[in-house]
Write a structure and sequence with these properties.
Strand order of the largest sheet: 3-2-1-4-5-6-7
CATH class of the largest domain: Alpha Beta
Helix content: 40-55%
CATH superfamily of the largest domain: Glycogen Phosphorylase B
Shape: globular
Number of helices: 14
Radius of gyration: 19 Å
Strand content: 5-15%
Bound molecules: uridine-diphosphate-N-acetylglucosamine
CATH topology of the largest domain: Rossmann fold
Number of domains: 2
Largest sheet: 7 strands, parallel
Structural class: alpha/beta
CATH architecture of the largest domain: 3-Layer(aba) Sandwich
Order of helices and strands: EHEHEHEHEHEHEHEHHEHEHEHEHEH
Length: about 325
């Protein structure tokens, strides 16, 4: 039996197609939710909308606030579960703290670690996710990459065994959605990276620059960011609750352009041909800069001068069959 470990919003659209394909192939599996994201709008709404099975295990412990508390507490709980279940493999997704915790526990118990979305590198070690990616890739036994840049990154680091170019599970899910088709003419905004939101004065400077663009902006705010900006009123920015996956992707498809600091949105915007300004210095999705609609911007006062890119970027390998390719390998474990 394999066990999938998920914890935060970006994991949910990725686990869905893989669980479905494993079920079709009668591969025994369990699902564990670490509870890293616990608000209804950050978690359960995705399970309902995407029809993901109710997790077999949910860690109900308080995970703590700091990275060490979160990573450590998840490790302590996962060790008990893996010890009693003795899974054939632990499947981890992306770069969140839950991914790191699960990979560390599994590898020390000599359980194969299967990493989905391996090889992404922003080359910015100040990002907590970059540390998680590097560590997880170096202790994983099976590494599935979304694009050829990721494969090359792994080769450069000497990771060459059991590396597969499998495609992008999140785009597989995106392609199954029936999207609403009424262009809003608005700008879609998301912000949650520590580098943009942890320093309150920087956050308000960014929001001030975006507000002064003079276009209506819709801002589904992460609970952490919402707490900071709660009572602040903007002329053009409308803060709303986090959206469900379908609602968010429909908005991304219909907006004039998007501004964000997220990872996954870079791929989604490029596939939907929506121009995107990524408020970061670096990206782990270099292909979306070279071929897609993504542009990096490290100074929000420059947004007004930026050129918006259109480009129908959808690599052949993002064809809706990523789960099938991964399952062919899982069958051999
Ligand atoms: C996490 C991931 C990030 C991913 C993002 C998507 C890590 C290191 N980061 O960042 O890669 O892009 O999820 O959203 O794992 N909180 C709530 N409600 C929730 C979840 C969190 O209020 O449902 C608050 C809590 O106070 C928590 C804080 O937000 O301490 C940060 O949450 P956390 O999961 O640590 O990181 P994210 O910023 O969401």
């Amino acid at each position: 039996m394999f066990i999938h470990i998920v914890g935060a919003r970006p994991n949910f659209p990725k686990v869905k197609p893989l669980m479905e394909e494993m079920k079709k192939n009668s591969i025994s599996q369990k699902l564990l939710h670490t509870g890293q994201h616990y608000d209804y709008l950050m978690s359960k709404v995705f399970f309902n909308e995407l029809d993901i099975p109710v997790p077999d295990f949910h860690l109900d412990e308080y995970l703590g606030k700091t990275h060490a508390e979160q990573t450590g507490n998840i490790m302590i709980e996962l060790e008990k579960v893996f010890d009693s279940l003795k899974p054939k493999g632990v499947i981890v997704y992306g770069d969140i703290n839950s991914t790191l915790s699960a990979a560390l526990v599994a590898t020390k118990l000599h359980i194969p670690v299967i990493h989905i979305e391996s090889g992404c590198r922003s080359f910015d070690k100040k990002m907590p996710e970059e540390i998680n990616r590097i560590v997880v890739d170096h202790i994983s036994n099976y590494l599935f990459c979304t694009d050829s840049y990721s494969v090359k990154n792994l080769i450069k680091e000497g990771v060459t065994e059991n590396v597969y170019l499998s495609g992008n599970l999140m785009i597989d899910t995106l392609k199954t959605l029936s999207l609403d088709d009424n262009p809003s003419g608005e700008v879609l905004l998301t912000l949650h990276r520590p580098s943009n939101v942890d320093d309150t004065s920087k956050l308000f400077r960014i929001l001030g620059d975006i507000d002064s663009l003079g276009t209506r902006v819709i801002f589904p705010a992460h609970p952490r960011v919402k707490k900071i900006i709660d009572n602040k009123k903007f002329d053009n920015i409308k803060t709303v609750e986090p959206m469900s996956y379908k609602e968010f992707i429909s908005n991304l498809n219909n907006c004039k352009y998007a501004i964000s600091d997220s990872g996954g949105i870079q791929c989604e915007a490029s596939v939907l041909n929506t121009p995107l300004i990524t408020l970061r210095d670096t990206t782990e999705h270099q292909d979306t800069i070279l071929f897609g609609t993504n542009t990096l911007c490290s100074d929000s006062s420059e947004i007004k001068n930026m050129k918006l890119k259109k480009s129908n970027y959808s690599p052949k390998i993002w064809d809706g069959n990523s789960a099938k390719r991964i399952v062919e390998v899982l069958k051999t474990i």
